[in-house]
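We emphasize that the prediction below concerns an isolated chain of 193 residues; any contacts that depend on oligomerization or on bound cofactors are therefore not represented. The input was used exactly as deposited, without trimming of termini.
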Amino acid sequence: MARSNLARLATGSYSAGGEVLDKTLYDSAALLSTTTVHRLFTIPLGQGGKTLDRTNATVGGMMPQGQNLAVRAIKFFYVTVGALATADVQTLYTFLRTCTAEVLIPGKDALWQGTLLELSGISVAAAMTPTAAGDNIPFVSPRFHGIMPINTPIVLAALTPFEVRLTCNTASGAALDGDFVYVGLTGTLQRAS
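Result of the prediction step, given as a token string:
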């Protein structure tokens, strides 16, 4: 027997089979020139100063029970807390060049690894100072897109411990103190409803 239109329209919010959603699980870290390793997704929402604008991870260090995220892209964002001085643009580029990101599950090799330059989508990063007043020589402008597609999904199953680790081989420099880096893990979330 065919379901009535009314019954069909009333289904979908909750079902025995769960639900499938597009989801970005995100977290952030505030930079500090004395810190060279930042561990993201280890502190959940509501703890350690993490508000919804800083993270949407509800469990620190693992996927919640009844959820499975197949990550198909890693997103990267950088937000300053104030305007950068001209000299600090090179400090930012050096930070992006000397820092790496890794998606880690304990007991396994890194599931993804790359520099923050790659993750942010920067192929050319050069600060330029005019040699004479009025010099406006065009320079290659990088296209910052901040989305790294993952061809083979990284699957974060329920109760799987994981983290994204940012490791800087040199200190970020005091000019960047307080700036925020954000990482988003975007993909298909399956969860029980």
